[in-house]
């Protein structure tokens, strides 16, 4: 297997006259927790959409493990081990937590279409195994008691967790998170930090967007900063924190007395 | 709920198994049609209820199955049994070919396109394309079903034939819910983009739903042609598709729901035939009232069908 | 014990008024006969089943009525519904009398079927002869809708015209009730026709005529038998004048006392005139069967039909003399061409 | 050429009637995401109401004033029916799944259609020739007074409606309600009133369409609503449902399609070809010609 | 601060079907105050806001604004009374332009106050840049700005802000919080729901802590900030 590297070269995405992403290049290496930050409307989500096949960038290339994935459909990209969560939660809201997580097992299931019409012992076994896997994920994310609860009646924080569990069910190599801490309180954010670390422990590379700087500083290994679709800085969190361009465009001056 | 479903399914099966012996021939005819319509409605449920595609053209696949059987039998002298596989496969192929370019259409646009297909289909029948459809009159005098040397022409015999087809369909429906493809349909109905983003090829599964639905409807059509020993275009008009569409929604897109839907939307009007001029007026009100009282249908589909071992009591403390 | 009579007709749906006409007529006749003591002492009991003019509902109706133990079926109005039920009545030995005009109705050899109208082919021949030989039209246009009746009549007419060496410049289809016929007519206009023959129903025919005149198409207009309805004239409005209709004598034209009395009774009972000749044709069918039973002094259906096949003298009917051929066809058609006058009345332009 | 121009006139006349009816679908759909399947039957009912107004209220007077009065009265009455329809059949289903309201609409369609049959009977009713039979000849092209009236009145109404929705405060409220009713309430918009307004406008336009049908074709039947409803609904979809200029364009195009196809291609296959063309357009432009405005971002 | 009570909630109960979301909430807001409601996910903060705006029917209890009972008033009349609401999830009108969204904010007034519009554009220059863009295609944070701006357009006396900093870049969060301070200085009363408890308490005069549908704690911000319970539960001070 080639290196689990994601390389963006000169990716450009336009909406009408607006260039949302402007000749962006970046490289995410295997095992990293990689952060993308930047002001609102800088183009972060758009970059993720270009990686995951929701948009096709007009120019540039998106290479994953040496393969060009630009122009592939989302499900083809998932099949190559890249999974994402959304900035606004997109769960199957009427379905239970367990069913939501089970959806992530789709591409790992060995069943063919004909098994939907006529089951075989093999398909029954496969079904069982996948539900077992869902059980494991419920446990990992501490969601066991909600297994049968429809996700729409869960509070926001738990929905976020379900979404992440669903993404992990795919057994991804690269997990992409769009503002996973949005709407979480400090305690929940702390839990999230732990979760992200344990995900990395499983050998999964993580790429995330986040505005919660505390979290970003704590978890990421490397950062890219976007403004107006362009990269204005990249480096380790420490470097970025001190970068005057980033402070001006994004962080704001530290005029507050922090503890 | 789960227990209730099981018990009612059992009661339903027992009642249906002895039913024809309790009815006179007219009601036997209604009962057979009930079975056939149930199969079509279930097939519609695959497309509309499970995959969430607004298909208002299911009568076309139903009609295609019926016409395949009628044409092969009356023009080419095939025995009815031999026509059945073709009556399934032809609609499946048509379903796939037609669905492929249209499944990307959203809700109401798909609805119009499927209505369009249905209208084109009926016009093909009426214009007697290829000289085999019998034009506006349709085809009469189709042979009865012959199996192992027996001629199954009585309504009771056809009843059991149709009943067997319904059981087969139910088996498929139940299995579908417990399989990868069945779940994929639910996911893509709820949120196609999220479904794509966890690796589901939504296009493929939508086409699958159309194909499977078409095949089942085609089989039902074949039974229908055998029952009436006649086919004619108006039985497959788009208005008939509207009926199947409403059945699924009134019933509520669960198996018992669809069966109740067929009963309410087809058998009840038969029962109230006496009140001919008022019946549809009242019936319309009943439809409105049903939806107001049971917006998700009389017996809605439920989710949360997950294996028992996953359901844990809430932890205390911790 | 009663004599059970079934009515199978479109009580609801597009042809509701014709269906209700058949039902009303049947019940009226039954009441009249019952008041006079019934049939050989038995009162008539009428059962009605709505076939909605569809094949499927028709088959259900047929089974229901057979179950009720009826001896005869009056209806249905459309050929499609009549045809779908034929075999069930045949199997049960129940006589069915219908105004359905499709030729195929009498081609199956079911002894139980008696047509009380005249087949499409008979009208087609008359119409072709009238257009080609009598009027000498050189450029003929035929228009029909998609119903089995209209397609049957139009196909037969086109074939008959060709057989006589006539020239059909265009054969067009319109969708029944679609009202907007100007596109088809505009196309017809470019063909410079001498005559437009409309093989559909009066509702479309009336509008076709009105729109023909509005488009300035200077061609004669001839409507087939189903155009014979007062609504044709109302729909065509000022354009009705000069249009021609081919039919057997119509409700308002029936010269027989029997007809006048029956129509009067009908009007008294229901507050309106029968919607068309077709209901009356069906009543005649019923009268013929009852007549046969009384002559045979038996309610046996096979005997009654055989009696009707073998009659020497026709029975007096509301719609004219009643006589039947062995294949179930009514014989003795007497088609004529009416021309509509400015005041809406008919003038006989030609007679068979 | 003569034939072509004549077909153009034919197509535009029928097309503007489709468009008037299509606006009713599109407006209701825009705000409620509901295909109001009862709308076609409302159109049919309007024709019957109009005829009764003419015979009973106007005492069969046929002056210009009488014709205008018939239009006003009928539109007013049908607006009330529309509001009642919404109250009874749709409002209780506001928060229900989308398709439940569609079934309710199908139920309402049955009620109205059979209601017409119970009140006015199953027979065709016939309008008198209220508009003088006046024709203009341009070369070989014949255009009648009523055609001109239909075209002009429809266009004026459509443009007025468009301006109302796009340029006025209430129009903005209508558009806001069509996107997010709760958020609209937060702005102080009385969503119930807006929906009632939608039904008033939609039903009165439908009523005018129904009267045009009566005046132009003159024969009206209790079940004629289905086909006008279907065609108008398809026109709305073709233009991009929820989109007012789309409904106009869709209606006109559908009228032209059917005119040119049944005129030039084949009358036998007119429906089939019209629908195949339509299907093709939708395959190429999945949200209709002008597109439904969508702005969904992930 | 003068004891000028503008707004009170007493014993408010709300449920979604069988699920009780609020089980007797009482609170009080004085004119010109910034009051924050804290609470874990699902505590019922948003439900409280929605109940005030009458977007959800209350089961029992009362909500009074300037002495007027709100529970008997339909939702669309609330904003006329001077309460506007920037809802959770932004709820901008996606297929309307940014400017149309802002102008709808003044629908209840019937006319636009150009000064307010100016002020909002100054606060969020990005909105002015994108005046003609469809709101639905704005980035998450841009939509949040629009939602806040739209709520302020009606020159309300009291504004309800449900997680205004959600998805907003740090630099803007600071700016928004400053603006909240500013509008409060201009006499607008603010009821604020925030996940970022520390920032919210620093900004607010007083706070309430909601726990599963009930008020668990209340008091001046400084007290709450100092309270051990709050520190543990909301400020992530367990390490
Ligand atoms: N479908 C679209 N059509 C038009 N403009 C778009 C579209 N999607 C995004 N944009 C614009 O592109 C720019 C980048 O948007 P994007 O969502 O990538 O920002 P972001 O960096 O994720 O911001 P945030 O942190 O606020 O989520 C924004 O200005 C947005 O308005
Ligand atoms: N539409 C709904 N249907 C059913 N339950 C709901 C609904 N909306 C909210 N709830 C439930 O009501 C309770 C309170 O929810 P609310 O949204 O008010 O919480 P919140 O404090 O705003 O939380 P968050 O921080 O996640 O925004 C939760 O338990 C939630 O699950
Ligand atoms: C008008 C009638 C001659 C029609 C005929 N009953 C048929 O449908 O065949
Ligand atoms: Mg973003
Ligand atoms: Mg909330």
TrEMBL record, chain A:
<protein>
    <submittedName>
        <fullName>ABC transporter ATP-binding protein</fullName>
    </submittedName>
</protein>
<dbReference type="GO" id="GO:0005886">
    <property type="term" value="C:plasma membrane"/>
</dbReference>
<dbReference type="InterPro" id="IPR032823">
    <property type="entry name" value="BCA_ABC_TP_C"/>
</dbReference>
<dbReference type="Pfam" id="PF12399">
    <property type="entry name" value="BCA_ABC_TP_C"/>
</dbReference>
<dbReference type="GO" id="GO:0016887">
    <property type="term" value="F:ATP hydrolysis activity"/>
</dbReference>
<dbReference type="GO" id="GO:0015808">
    <property type="term" value="P:L-alanine transport"/>
</dbReference>
<dbReference type="GO" id="GO:0015192">
    <property type="term" value="F:L-phenylalanine transmembrane transporter activity"/>
</dbReference>
<dbReference type="GO" id="GO:1903806">
    <property type="term" value="P:L-isoleucine import across plasma membrane"/>
</dbReference>
<dbReference type="GO" id="GO:0015188">
    <property type="term" value="F:L-isoleucine transmembrane transporter activity"/>
</dbReference>
<dbReference type="InterPro" id="IPR051120">
    <property type="entry name" value="ABC_AA/LPS_Transport"/>
</dbReference>
<keyword id="KW-0813">Transport</keyword>
<feature type="domain" description="ABC transporter">
    <location>
        <begin position="6"/>
        <end position="253"/>
    </location>
</feature>
From TrEMBL, chain B:
<feature type="transmembrane region" description="Helical">
    <location>
        <begin position="109"/>
        <end position="126"/>
    </location>
</feature>
<protein>
    <submittedName>
        <fullName>Branched-chain amino acid ABC transporter permease</fullName>
    </submittedName>
</protein>
<dbReference type="InterPro" id="IPR001851">
    <property type="entry name" value="ABC_transp_permease"/>
</dbReference>
<feature type="transmembrane region" description="Helical">
    <location>
        <begin position="242"/>
        <end position="268"/>
    </location>
</feature>
<dbReference type="GO" id="GO:0015658">
    <property type="term" value="F:branched-chain amino acid transmembrane transporter activity"/>
</dbReference>
<keyword id="KW-1133">Transmembrane helix</keyword>
<keyword id="KW-0812">Transmembrane</keyword>
<feature type="transmembrane region" description="Helical">
    <location>
        <begin position="84"/>
        <end position="102"/>
    </location>
</feature>
<keyword id="KW-0472">Membrane</keyword>
<dbReference type="Pfam" id="PF02653">
    <property type="entry name" value="BPD_transp_2"/>
</dbReference>
<dbReference type="InterPro" id="IPR043428">
    <property type="entry name" value="LivM-like"/>
</dbReference>
<dbReference type="GO" id="GO:0005886">
    <property type="term" value="C:plasma membrane"/>
</dbReference>
TrEMBL record, chain D:
<dbReference type="GO" id="GO:0005886">
    <property type="term" value="C:plasma membrane"/>
</dbReference>
<feature type="transmembrane region" description="Helical">
    <location>
        <begin position="12"/>
        <end position="31"/>
    </location>
</feature>
<feature type="transmembrane region" description="Helical">
    <location>
        <begin position="141"/>
        <end position="165"/>
    </location>
</feature>
<dbReference type="GO" id="GO:0015188">
    <property type="term" value="F:L-isoleucine transmembrane transporter activity"/>
</dbReference>
<protein>
    <submittedName>
        <fullName>Branched-chain amino acid ABC transporter permease</fullName>
    </submittedName>
</protein>
<dbReference type="GO" id="GO:0015192">
    <property type="term" value="F:L-phenylalanine transmembrane transporter activity"/>
</dbReference>
<keyword id="KW-0029">Amino-acid transport</keyword>
<dbReference type="GO" id="GO:0005304">
    <property type="term" value="F:L-valine transmembrane transporter activity"/>
</dbReference>
<dbReference type="InterPro" id="IPR052157">
    <property type="entry name" value="BCAA_transport_permease"/>
</dbReference>
<feature type="transmembrane region" description="Helical">
    <location>
        <begin position="38"/>
        <end position="57"/>
    </location>
</feature>
<feature type="transmembrane region" description="Helical">
    <location>
        <begin position="63"/>
        <end position="85"/>
    </location>
</feature>
<dbReference type="GO" id="GO:0042941">
    <property type="term" value="P:D-alanine transmembrane transport"/>
</dbReference>
Automatic annotation (TrEMBL), chain E:
<keyword id="KW-0067">ATP-binding</keyword>
<protein>
    <submittedName>
        <fullName>ABC transporter ATP-binding protein</fullName>
    </submittedName>
</protein>
<keyword id="KW-0029">Amino-acid transport</keyword>
<keyword id="KW-0813">Transport</keyword>
<dbReference type="Pfam" id="PF00005">
    <property type="entry name" value="ABC_tran"/>
</dbReference>
<dbReference type="GO" id="GO:0015658">
    <property type="term" value="F:branched-chain amino acid transmembrane transporter activity"/>
</dbReference>
<dbReference type="InterPro" id="IPR052156">
    <property type="entry name" value="BCAA_Transport_ATP-bd_LivF"/>
</dbReference>
<dbReference type="GO" id="GO:0005524">
    <property type="term" value="F:ATP binding"/>
</dbReference>
<dbReference type="InterPro" id="IPR017871">
    <property type="entry name" value="ABC_transporter-like_CS"/>
</dbReference>
<dbReference type="InterPro" id="IPR003593">
    <property type="entry name" value="AAA+_ATPase"/>
</dbReference>
<dbReference type="InterPro" id="IPR027417">
    <property type="entry name" value="P-loop_NTPase"/>
</dbReference>
<feature type="domain" description="ABC transporter">
    <location>
        <begin position="7"/>
        <end position="237"/>
    </location>
</feature>
């Amino acid at each position: 297997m080639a290196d689990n590297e994601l390389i963006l070269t000169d990716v450009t995405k336009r909406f009408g006259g607006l260039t949302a992403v402007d000749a962006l290049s970046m490289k995410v290496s295997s095992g990293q927790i990689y952060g993308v930050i930047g002001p609102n409307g800088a183009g972060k989500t758009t970059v993720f959409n270009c990686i995951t096949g929701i948009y096709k960038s007009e120019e540039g290339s998106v290479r994953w493990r040496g393969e060009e994935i630009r122009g592939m459909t989302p499900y083809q990209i998932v099949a190559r081990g890249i999974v994402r969560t959304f900035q606004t939660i997109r769960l199957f809201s009427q379905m239970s937590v367990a069913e939501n997580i089970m959806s992530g097992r789709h591409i790992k299931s060995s069943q063919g279409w004909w098994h939907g019409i006529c089951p075989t012992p093999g398909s029954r076994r496969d079904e069982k195994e996948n539900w077992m896997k869902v059980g494991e994920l419920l446990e990992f994310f501490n969601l066991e008691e909600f297994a049968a609860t429809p996700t729409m009646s869960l509070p926001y924080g738990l929905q976020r967790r379900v979404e992440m569990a669903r993404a992990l069910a795919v057994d991804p190599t690269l997990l992409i998170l769009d503002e996973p801490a949005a709407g979480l309180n400090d305690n929940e954010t702390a839990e999230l930090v732990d979760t992200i670390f344990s995900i990395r422990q499983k050998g999964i590379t993580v790429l995330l967007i986040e505005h919660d700087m505390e979290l970003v500083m704590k978890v990421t290994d490397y950062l890219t900063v976007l403004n107006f679709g362009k990269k204005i800085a990249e480096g380790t969190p420490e470097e970025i924190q001190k970068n005057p361009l980033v402070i001006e465009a994004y962080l704001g001056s530290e005029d507050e007395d922090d503890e | 709920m789960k227990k209730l479903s099981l018990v009612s399914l059992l009661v339903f099966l027992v009642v249906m198994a002895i039913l024809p012996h309790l009815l006179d021939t007219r009601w036997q005819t209604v009962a057979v049609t009930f079975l056939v319509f149930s199969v079509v409605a279930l097939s519609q449920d695959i497309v509309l209820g499970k995959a969430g595609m607004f298909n208002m053209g299911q009568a076309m696949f139903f009609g295609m199955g019926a016409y395949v059987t009628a044409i092969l039998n009356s023009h080419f002298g095939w025995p009815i049994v031999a026509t059945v596989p073709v009556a399934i496969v032809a609609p499946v192929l048509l379903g796939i070919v037609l669905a492929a370019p249209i499944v990307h259409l959203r809700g109401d646009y798909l609805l119009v396109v499927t209505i369009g297909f249905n209208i084109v289909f009926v016009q093909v029948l009426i214009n007697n394309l290829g000289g085999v459809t019998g034009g506006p009159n349709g085809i009469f005098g189709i042979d009865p079903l012959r199996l192992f040397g027996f001629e199954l022409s009585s309504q009771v015999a056809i009843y059991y034939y149709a009943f067997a087809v319904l059981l087969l369909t139910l088996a498929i429906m139940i299995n579908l819910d417990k399989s990868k493809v069945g779940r994929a349909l639910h996911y893509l109905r709820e949120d196609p983009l999220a479904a794509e983003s966890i690796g589901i090829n939504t296009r493929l599964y939508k086409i699958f739903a159309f194909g499977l639905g078409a095949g089942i409807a085609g089989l039902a059509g074949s039974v229908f042609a055998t029952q009436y020993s006649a086919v004619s275009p108006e039985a497959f008009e788009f208005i008939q598709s509207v009926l199947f569409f409403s059945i699924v929604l009134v019933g509520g897109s669960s198996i018992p729901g669809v069966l109740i839907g067929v009963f309410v939307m087809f058998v009840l009007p038969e029962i109230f035939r006496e009140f001919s001029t008022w019946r549809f007026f009242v019936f319309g009100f009943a439809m409105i009232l049903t939806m107001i009282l049971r917006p998700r249908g009389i017996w809605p589909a439920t989710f949360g069908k997950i294996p028992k071992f996953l359901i844990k009591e809430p932890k205390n403390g911790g | 014990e009663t004599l059970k009579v079934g009515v199978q007709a479109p009580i609801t749906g597009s042809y509701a008024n014709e269906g209700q006409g058949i039902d009303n007529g049947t019940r009226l006749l039954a009441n009249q006969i019952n008041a006079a003591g019934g049939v050989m002492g038995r009162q008539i009991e009428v059962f009605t089943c709505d076939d909605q003019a569809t094949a499927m509902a028709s088959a259900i109706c047929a089974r229901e009525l057979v179950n009720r133990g009826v001896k005869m079926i009056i209806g249905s109005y459309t050929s499609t519904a009549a045809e779908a039920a034929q075999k069930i009545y045949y199997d049960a030995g129940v006589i069915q009398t219908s105004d359905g005009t499709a030729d195929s109705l009498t081609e199956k050899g079911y002894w139980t079927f008696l047509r009380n109208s005249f087949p499409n082919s008979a009208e087609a021949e008359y119409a072709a002869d009238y257009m080609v030989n009598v009027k000498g039209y050189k450029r003929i246009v035929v228009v029909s809708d998609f119903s089995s009746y209209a397609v049957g009549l139009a196909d037969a007419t086109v074939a008959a015209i060709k057989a006589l060496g006539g020239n059909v410049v265009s054969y067009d289809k319109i969708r029944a009730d679609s009202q907007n016929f100007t596109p088809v007519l505009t196309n017809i206009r470019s063909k410079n026709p001498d005559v437009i023959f409309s093989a559909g129903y009066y509702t479309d025919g009336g509008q076709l005529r009105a729109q023909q005149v509005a488009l300035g198409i200077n061609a004669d207009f001839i409507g087939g038998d189903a155009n014979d309805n007062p609504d044709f004239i109302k729909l065509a409005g000022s354009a009705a004048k000069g249009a021609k209709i081919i039919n057997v004598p119509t409700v308002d034209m029936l010269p027989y006392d029997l007809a006048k009395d029956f129509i009067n009774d009908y009007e008294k009972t229901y507050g309106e005139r029968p919607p068309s000749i077709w209901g009356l044709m069906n009543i005649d069918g019923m009268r013929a069967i009852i007549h046969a039973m009384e002559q045979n002094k038996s309610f046996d259906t096979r005997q009654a039909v055989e009696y009707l096949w073998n009659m020497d003298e026709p029975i007096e009917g509301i719609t004219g003399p009643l006589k039947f051929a062995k294949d179930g066809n009514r014989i003795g058609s007497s088609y004529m061409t009416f021309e509509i006058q400015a005041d809406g009345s008919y003038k006989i332009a030609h007679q068979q | 050429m003569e034939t072509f121009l004549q077909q153009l006139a034919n197509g535009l006349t029928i097309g503007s009637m489709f468009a008037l009816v299509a606006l009713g679908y599109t407006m209701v759909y825009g705000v409620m995401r509901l295909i109001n399947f009862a709308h076609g039957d409302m159109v049919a009912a309007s024709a019957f109401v109009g005829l009764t107004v003419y015979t009973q209220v106007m005492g069969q007077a046929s002056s210009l004033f009488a014709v205008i009065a018939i239009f006003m009265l009928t539109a007013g009455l049908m607006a009330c029916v529309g509001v009642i329809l919404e109250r009874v059949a749709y409002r209780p289903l506001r928060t229900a799944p989308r398709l439940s309201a569609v079934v309710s609409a199908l139920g309402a369609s049955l009620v109205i259609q059979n209601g017409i049959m119970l009140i006015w009977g199953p027979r065709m009713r016939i309008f008198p020739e209220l508009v003088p039979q006046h024709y203009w000849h341009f070369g070989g092209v014949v255009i009648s007074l009523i055609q001109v009236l239909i075209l002009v009145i429809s266009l004026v109404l459509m443009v007025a409606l468009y301006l109302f929705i796009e340029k006025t405060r209430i129009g903005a409220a209508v558009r806001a309600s069509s996107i997010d009713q709760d958020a609209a309430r937060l702005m102080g918009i009385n969503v119930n009133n807006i929906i009632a307004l939608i039904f008033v406008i939609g039903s009165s336009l439908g009523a005018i369409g129904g009267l045009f049908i009566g005046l132009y074709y003159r024969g009206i039947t209790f079940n004629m609503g289905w086909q006008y409803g279907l065609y108008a609904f398809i026109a709305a979809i073709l233009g991009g449902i929820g989109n007012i200029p789309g409904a106009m364009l869709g209606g006109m195009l559908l009228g032209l399609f059917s005119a040119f196809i049944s005129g030039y291609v084949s009358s036998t296959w007119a429906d089939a070809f019209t629908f195949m063309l339509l299907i093709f357009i939708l395959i190429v432009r999945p949200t209709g010609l002008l597109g439904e405005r969508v702005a969904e971002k992930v | 601060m003068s004891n000028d009570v503008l707004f009170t909630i007493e014993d408010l109960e709300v449920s979604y079907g069988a699920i009780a979301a609020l089980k007797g909430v009482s609170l009080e807001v004085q004119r010109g105050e910034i009051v924050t409601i804290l609470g874990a996910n699902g505590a019922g903060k948003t439900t409280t806001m929605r109940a005030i705006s009458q977007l959800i029917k209350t089961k029992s209890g009362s909500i009074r604004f300037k002495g007027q009972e709100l529970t008997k008033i339909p939702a669309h009349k609330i904003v006329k009374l001077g309460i506007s609401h920037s809802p959770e999830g932004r709820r901008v009108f996606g297929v309307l332009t940014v400017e149309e969204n802002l102008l709808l904010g003044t629908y209840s007034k019937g006319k636009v106050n150009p000064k307010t519009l100016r002020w909002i554009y100054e606060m969020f220059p990005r909105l002015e840049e994108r005046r003609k863009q469809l709101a639905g295609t704005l980035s998450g944070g841009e939509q949040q700005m629009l939602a806040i701006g739209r709520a302020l357009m009606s020159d309300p006396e009291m504004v309800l802000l449900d997680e205004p900093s959600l998805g907003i870049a740090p630099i803007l969060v600071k700016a928004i919080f400053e603006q909240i301070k500013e509008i409060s200085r201009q006499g607008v009363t603010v009821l604020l729901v925030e996940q970022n408890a520390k920032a919210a308490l620093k900004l607010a005069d007083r706070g309430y802590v909601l726990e599963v549908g009930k008020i668990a704690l209340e008091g001046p911000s400084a007290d709450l900030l100092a309270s051990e319970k709050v520190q543990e539960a909301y400020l992530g001070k367990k390490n």
